[in-house]
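Weekly structure sync, notes
Attendees: PL (lead), two postdocs, one rotation student
Agenda item 3: pending single-chain targets
PL asked that the sequence for the first pending target be pasted directly into the notes so everyone works from the same version. It is reproduced below exactly as submitted, 159 residues in total.
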Amino acid sequence: MSGGDCERVRDLLPDRIAGRLGPAAAAAVDAHLAVCDDCRAEAEVVELLARHPAELPAGLEARVLAATTRRRRLPYVPASALLAASIAAVLLGGVAIRRHGRGVEPVPAGAPASAVSVDGRGLMMRLPGSSDDGLAAGGTSLDDLSEDELRSLLQELNS
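Predicted structure, written out during the meeting:
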């Protein structure tokens, strides 16, 4: 017999011993057991285990059920603590919005791309000395600014 036959028969042994196989499947398992010593030995072990099942320790089933059905409780947080945390979040958000919004000029609709810059926060600002003709037509770039103008720009960005 091939290893695949033995594998299939070993999978069916518990059902054969318990009488849960149909007549054709039971006859196929019995025919294999008649010619395969290894599967026949395994069938004897399965049969022995079926006749003498292990007994569970007293109360084990109840302890397992209790442990698996217990609900976990969330830690108690007083409503006043939740309210305080919410107020703090709103205040911090307002401070952050206000702080990051300083020094930003609104950009008029239709302003050329060279006249505005996007800082690290995604805010658009007018560049000092920018003209309406754009960089491609000779507009101001950072390389054209003096040291004083660059310092002024950095101060403006940091405020």
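Discussion points:
- DSSP finds six helices and two strands in the chain.
- Residues 79-101 form the longest helix (23 residues).
Action: rotation student to compare against the earlier draft before next sync.
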